[in-house]
């Protein structure tokens, strides 16, 4: 396998429409490095799931192609299927057989995925151990908690020991605690088992915490791609400074900050415990921090001044809105 586990080359998917074709994915080029945990975001109908299904060989591209694990998704589809594990949002573990135990589910899926029986026995026991399912391994899945069902589904995905995992909304419908546990498992699969993971999710917090790089797809096209820092610099709100003061005389400090010519606007000025927080958008980050410090020096006790990066949700809204309107 080369340095890239997933490579799309002008991949396009069109569906017939009444007047003109509906373009679900539009000439998309994407490179995902081996061992990377990569996030794919987009509004509903943006093309995320269509792209995933093409990578899984479930649907054929209209134009272009992709390589997964070095194999062409059209010409070498069988090899691609041997290389990937696919998990899509299955609320409540509906894709499992509820009247079978976890162990029997895994035996069944190992059989239909052509995992040799001697390998399957050892791998099932290892997966039951890894996902902390040993104690309940022979109980019926219908009696499992939602979190346990998700762990069984992840174990099922790993049965052929694929180097690449395509996780499409893996935490959809989960309660907060189960979602946290699932995120930890995904991180472990990447860091400890060195799996390349392509993750789609509507949970932007989840993607921000887990993924090294993120691509945003809208109307079938990749409209932004990069690390969180790189994405942040695509929008003006990336230039935000937070001032933390001791004491509660923050209103006077806010008035001083507002008078500086590099301040676009004060976003937040409020008490925080026994101190005060002021957050402001600035036109020049390099000079903002020293100039604010100089303006407040001598009259206020400064706990800290730092650049604040916008959250992924803010970046996502700005980028997709800009793309829709532009």
At a glance:
The chain is α/β, with parallel strands linked by helices. 36% of the residues lie in helices and 29% in strands.
Judging by the overall fold, what is the CATH architecture of the largest domain?
Answer: 3-Layer(aba) Sandwich
Query: What is the CATH class name of the largest domain?
Result: Alpha Beta
What best-fitting shape do the alpha-carbon axes yield? globular
* Cα-atom radius of gyration: 24 Å
Would you tell me the overall average pLDDT? 90
Number of structural domains? 2
- Beta-strand percentage range: 25-35%
Major pleated sheet = 6 strands, mixed
Helix content: 25-40%
Structural class: alpha/beta
Distance between the termini: 39 Å
Describe the structure.
- The two termini are 39 Å apart.
- Helix 6 links the parallel strand 7 (164-168) and strand 8 (196-200).
- This protein is of the alpha/beta class and 326 residues long.
- The chain has helices spanning 48-55, 77-83, 102-112, 117-130, 146-158, 176-191, 204-210, 228-232, 250-258, 285-296, 312-325, and strands at 4-15, 22-33, 37-41, 63-68, 71-72, 84-88, 164-168, 196-200, 213-218, 221-226, 240-246, 263-272, 275-282, 302-308.
- The strands form three sheets. The chain has a six-stranded mixed β-sheet, sandwiched between helices. The protein has a four-stranded antiparallel β-sheet with strand order 2-1-4-5, covered by helices on one side. Strands 12-13-11-14 form a four-stranded antiparallel β-sheet, covered by helices on one side.
- It has two domains: 4-94 and 158-232, 3-Layer(aba) Sandwich (Rossmann fold); 236-309, 2-Layer Sandwich (Alpha-Beta Plaits).
């Amino acid at each position: 396998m080369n340095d890239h586990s997933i490579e799309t080359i002008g991949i396009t998917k069109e569906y017939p429409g009444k007047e003109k074709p509906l373009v679900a994915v539009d000439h998309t080029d994407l490179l995902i490095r081996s061992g990377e945990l990569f996030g794919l975001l987009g509004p509903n109908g943006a093309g995320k799931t269509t792209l995933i299904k093409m990578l899984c060989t479930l649907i054929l591209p209209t134009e272009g192609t992709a390589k997964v694990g070095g194999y062409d998704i059209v010409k070498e589809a069988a090899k691609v299927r041997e290389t990937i594990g696919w998990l899509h949002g299955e609320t409540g573990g509906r894709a499992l057989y509820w009247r079978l135990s976890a162990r029997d589910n895994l035996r069944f899926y190992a059989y239909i995925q052509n995992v040799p029986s001697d390998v399957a026995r050892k791998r099932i026991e290892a997966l039951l151990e890894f996902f902390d399912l040993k104690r309940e391994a022979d109980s019926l899945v219908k009696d499992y908690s939602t979190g346990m069902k998700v762990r069984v589904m992840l174990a099922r995905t790993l049965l052929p020991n694929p180097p690449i995992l395509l996780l499409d909304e893996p935490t959809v419908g989960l309660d907060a605690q189960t979602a946290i546990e699932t995120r930890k498992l995904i991180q472990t699969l990447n860091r400890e088992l060195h799996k390349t993971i392509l993750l789609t999710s509507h949970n932007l917090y989840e993607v921000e915490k887990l993924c090294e790089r993120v691509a945003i797809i809208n109307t079938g096209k990749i409209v932004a791609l990069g690390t969180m820092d790189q994405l942040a610099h695509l929008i003006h709100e990336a230039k935000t400074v937070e001032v933390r003061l001791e004491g509660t005389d923050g209103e006077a400090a806010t008035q001083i900050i507002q008078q500086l010519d590099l301040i676009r606007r004060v976003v937040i000025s409020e008490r925080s415990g026994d101190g005060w927080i002021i957050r402001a958008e600035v036109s020049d980050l390099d000079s903002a921090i020293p100039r604010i410090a100089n303006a407040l020096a001598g009259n206020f006790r400064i706990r800290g001044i730092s650049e604040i990066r916008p959250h992924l949700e803010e970046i996502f809204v700005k980028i997709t809105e800009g793309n829709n309107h532009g």
